[in-house]
């Protein structure tokens, strides 16, 4: 397996970008109310587990950035469009395919799939752009 040098600041930047997007995406200004309704979660229930959820999300954001930069290096992507393309194909081939089961098997609303996957797709596009150019 090739050994790539990775810019730690790019990893941090990509992870922070994902977290910032999540804070905006799931804020009252955008999609918090539809997300609460679709998940049948109350604000109190959400707040009860916020610290634990944020800790897991921070760790997950760094893991996602680390794995994505590997894919970007393997693809030879060094421009914004190429980095975004790697992010898109990663989302389509792994995230969308593995999460569609929430609709088909778990009978969750398709709108919830779109809401959550919209965030993940946009995250991977932004992270791909950052990591291709700066990674």
Protein described:
With 135 residues, this protein is mainly α. The chain has one domain (12-134). Helices cover 79% and strands 0% of the residues. The chain is built from seven helices and no strands. Helix 1 (8-25) crosses helix 4 and helix 4 packs across helix 7 (110-134).
SSE map:
Layout lengths: L7 H18 L6 H8 L3 H6 L1 H26 L4 H20 L1 H4 L5 H25 L1
Helix pairs in contact: 1-4, 1-7, 2-7, 4-5, 4-7, 5-7
Please give the radius of gyration in angstroms: 16 Å
How does the helix and strand content classify structurally? mainly alpha
Question: What value does the average pLDDT take?
Answer: 95
State which percent range the strand residues make up.
under 5%
The arrangement of helices and strands along the chain is: HHHHHHH
Provide key terms for this protein:
135 residues; mainly alpha; globular
Give a brief rundown of this model.
The chain is mostly helical and 135 residues long.
């Amino acid at each position: 397996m090739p050994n790539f040098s990775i810019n730690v600041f790019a990893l941090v930047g990509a992870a922070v970008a994902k977290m910032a997007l999540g804070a905006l995406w799931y804020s009252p200004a955008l999609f918090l109310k539809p997300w609460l309704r679709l998940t049948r979660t109350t604000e109190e229930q959400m707040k009860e587990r916020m610290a634990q959820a944020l800790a897991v999300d921070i760790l997950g954001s760094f893991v996602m950035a680390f794995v994505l930069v590997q894919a970007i290096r393997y693809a030879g992507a060094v421009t914004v469009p190429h980095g975004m393309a790697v992010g898109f194909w990663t989302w389509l081939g792994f995230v969308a395919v593995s999460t569609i089961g929430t609709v088909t098997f778990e009978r969750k609303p398709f709108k919830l799939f779109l809401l959550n996957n919209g965030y993940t797709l946009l995250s991977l596009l932004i992270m791909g752009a950052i990591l291709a150019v700066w990674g």
